Amino acid sequence: MAFFRLRRALTELGVEGRLKPDFSFSAVKQLSPRRLIKELEKRSGLRLPSPTLSYAGAGLLLLAFTGLVASFFIGNGWLILCLLAVLVLGFPVIGTVDRGMLPMGSKTLGGLARAAATRNYGRLVGEGAGMREGDLWRVFCDLLADHTALPKDEIARETLLIGKRTKAA
Asked: How far is 169 from 166, CA to CA, in rounded Å?
């Protein structure tokens, strides 16, 4: 269901070609990855994974942070204040100006559809999507993998997600 909604949204955006699961979003040149995700969310009604900073955006952020840290070693108060202001005011600008990158696993239509199905599982089932044996567990593992350091294939029913509390001796 998520795949068909995304495919319809891409067609509405004027994307031509073979819109099958292996369709690569690198073929969509008219929209930045950030804008593409926003448009697909709006047109499909699905919650999609957020785009990440591109290498250029991450480089600018790293450069600003490095300058701030270096200015502390130099010890110039005005330089620290100016760089701090640039960092605070520049961060939202970098987030809006940066073209972004598609998140890992979402570089193809099939990958994005899987991510969308995971994030919209309850809603899609409520709207009539089929529910197969094991779907709920797969969705649960996908969501846990997004929020923990564990890969989804290492999450099992006996996996301890919150460590035991031990008393100090």
From this structure: 9
Half-sphere exposure of 145 (CA within 13 A, CB side): 17
Q: Which CATH class is domain 2-50+106-132?
A: mainly alpha
Report the predicted TM-score, pTM, of the whole model to 2 decimal places. Answer: 0.64
Distances 132 to 6, 61, 150, 155 between C-alpha atoms, Å = 21, 44, 25, 20
pLDDT over 70 (residue 76): no
> Rounded to the nearest 10 degrees, what angle do helices 33-44 and 2-12 cross at?
110
Nearest-angstrom CA–CA distance, 121 and 114: 10
> CA 159 to CA 141: how far, in whole Å?
11
The C-alpha atoms of residue 62 and residue 24 are separated, in whole angstroms, by 29
On whether the CB atoms of residues 83 and 68 are closer than 8 A, the answer is yes
